[in-house]
Structures are given as structure tokens and as C-alpha cells.
Specification:
Blueprint lengths: L1 E2 L2 E4 L4 E4 L2 H8 L16 E2 L2 H12 L12 H11 L5 H8 L3 H8 L8 H6 L4 H17 L3 E4 L4 E4 L1 H8 L4 H8 L8 H9 L14 H9 L12 H14 L6 H27 L3 H7 L1
Parallel strand pairs: 1-4
Antiparallel strand pairs: 2-3, 5-6
């Protein structure tokens, strides 16, 4: 029995609908094997507005589309860091082994590929090349790889290896690039950490402001952002977690737990990056 289809997603900072795949996974466990010969029963309790949506998704079979494009930069950086991809040509071939390529060939319009192009180029070689070139240029601008356009070579950098090892996205590295400097204070480092893309969906709600103000007064480090910004909220909750402060709001507890899971990984990544840059004072403060 699924009682209610609204769950809180700390990454998005809001309540979201339970995914259809999760519903199918739960309903797939209905019944006891070898005992219930007639099968099991699944019950879902939701609002009338969402009833038709779940019924249609459970009854009809909709194709599963790939979401790789949104994270293609990070995967390409990982492949370059591992050494499996060292040139533009190899990256294009590597992309043909993915589920994204399968769905692009089957349903090109869903990925913004013109019908005429998919007709004249069934293997989508030109489209894959353009896609990989755009990702390689973005990684090169972030100094995560070295992309030489005339020869097509793609070489890894120390920053790219560190980002792949600690699962730091290209958006996070782009945000960090304008903030880190060798003589940063602990407050500056905390602000840099809270600027990570992992916290980009964090929201400050009106009912949380009173408690957030109380937490702000108890923060040992200066918060270099307002509470209305995600950096400010992340900074306050990070210091509250480290200080062991008890939180009252259930949403803040969930947000704080999400921050705690990501902050340590991001801090270790910042520490490794500081060591690679020979910023000893910065690395010591990160620890």
C-alpha cells in the first residue's frame, strides 16, 4: 500500500511525486511467492488530480528516455581521466555504446535532432561529433581536460582527475574557479564549498526563517551570503551540523542530512585540489 505520493526531495528542496518506476518496484513485491497463487494486490492512495497520471503510466508502456545529455560532461571527463578516451574520434565511438545513442536513433525528435538530419545521417555521426565537441570545449574552459581542436586530442588534467574521483560536477568546478584563492579564510572556504551545484536547488521557506535566524546567530564563522540565497542556507546548516545543534523543522533536518552527505565529499575534493596547487595553508584550513 502506497499512502500518499508526495515525498520530500532534499536535492530539489521541495515535495515531488513518487516516480512511476518506484511505484512499479513496490507493486512488484506484492504477494508471497509459493503461497499467493492468485497474485498480489497493490493499492495506491493519491489525490484525484494525480490519479489519471498514475493509472496511465501503470497501464500503458511509455519508453524510457536517456538523461545522459545533462551529465555528459562529467562522464566524458571520467572517461578521459581513466584513459579510455584520448581523442575526439574515440569519444564519438564511445558515445555510440551508450543508451543515449540507442534512443537518439529511435526517437531523434526527443533530443532536438531534426528529422531531415536523422534521415540523411542514420548513424548520427555528425550530431555525435558536434555534441562531443561542445562538451570537450566546456571541459577545456573549466581546465578539467586539455582539448586541442585541430588534432582532436583530449588529454586529462590533475583538476579533471580530482573532480572525477570525488564526483565533482563541471558546474561545481565552474562555480569554484572564480572563488578559490590561496589566501582564503575559513569563511571564504565554507562559502566556496556551499556554492557547489549539489546545493543549487536548495530553497529557503518563509516558515523556516525564524529558526534560520536563530541558527545564524550561533554560527562561529561569518556567513558571506544572505539567508535568502542557497549559499547562505547551506553555510548555516553546515555549521549547525558540525556544532551538533538540534533542529526543529523536519524539512531543515532533511536538508541538513543532505548537506552532510555531500559536504564531506566536496571538502575532500577541495583538499586534493589545494594540494595539487601547492596551497598548503588552504589545504590545512579545509581539513
Amino acid at each position: 500500500i502506497i499512502k500518499g505520493t508526495q515525498v520530500y526531495d532534499a536535492q530539489k528542496g521541495a515535495f515531488v511525486d513518487v516516480g512511476v518506476l518506484d511505484v512499479q518496484q513496490i507493486f512488484g513485491r506484492a504477494g508471497r511467492p509459493q503461497y499467493d497463487t492468485n497474485g498480489g494486490e497493490g493499492i495506491i492512495i493519491t489525490t484525484h488530480a494525480k490519479l489519471q497520471f498514475y493509472l496511465s503510466m501503470l497501464v500503458t508502456q511509455a519508453p524510457i528516455e536517456s538523461k545522459l545529455v545533462s551529465a555528459l560532461c562529467d562522464h566524458l571527463c571520467a572517461e578521459v581521466s581513466l584513459g579510455t578516451v584520448s581523442s575526439l574520434k574515440e569519444a564519438v565511438v564511445w558515445l555510440s555504446y551508450t543508451y543515449l545513442y540507442v534512443r537518439m536513433c529511435r526517437n531523434p525528435l526527443a533530443y532536438g535532432i531534426p528529422f531531415e538530419q536523422s534521415t540523411h545521417d542514420p548513424r548520427l555521426l555528425a550530431w555525435r561529433t558536434e555534441l562531443v565537441q561542445a562538451m570537450a570545449r566546456r571541459l577545456d574552459e573549466a581546465r578539467m581536460v586539455r582539448y586541442h581542436a585541430p588534432s582532436g586530442s583530449i588529454d586529462p588534467t590533475e583538476l579533471g582527475r580530482t573532480a572525477s574521483h570525488f564526483y565533482l560536477s563541471v558546474e561545481t568546478i565552474e562555480a569554484f574557479s572564480g572563488l578559490w584563492h590561496e589566501r582564503a579564510s575559513e569563511a571564504d572556504i565554507l562559502y566556496t564549498l556551499c556554492s557547489a551545484s549539489e546545493f543549487s536547488q536548495m530553497k529557503v521557506r518563509e516558515e523556516e526563517m525564524e529558526e534560520m535566524e536563530e541558527l545564524l546567530q550561533a554560527c562561529p564563522l561569518t556567513v558571506k551570503a544572505s539567508l535568502a540565497e542557497k549559499e547562505g542556507k547551506a553555510s548555516v546548516l553546515t555549521q549547525a551540523y558540525i556544532s551538533g545543534t538540534a533542529l526543529k523543522s523536519a524539512a531543515l533536518v532533511s536538508d541538513c542530512s543532505f548537506i552532510a552527505q555531500s559536504a564531506s565529499r566536496i571538502a575532500r575534493g577541495l583538499f586534493a585540489i589545494a594540494l595539487s596547487k601547492s596551497w598548503i595553508s588552504y589545504a590545512q584550513k579545509v581539513l
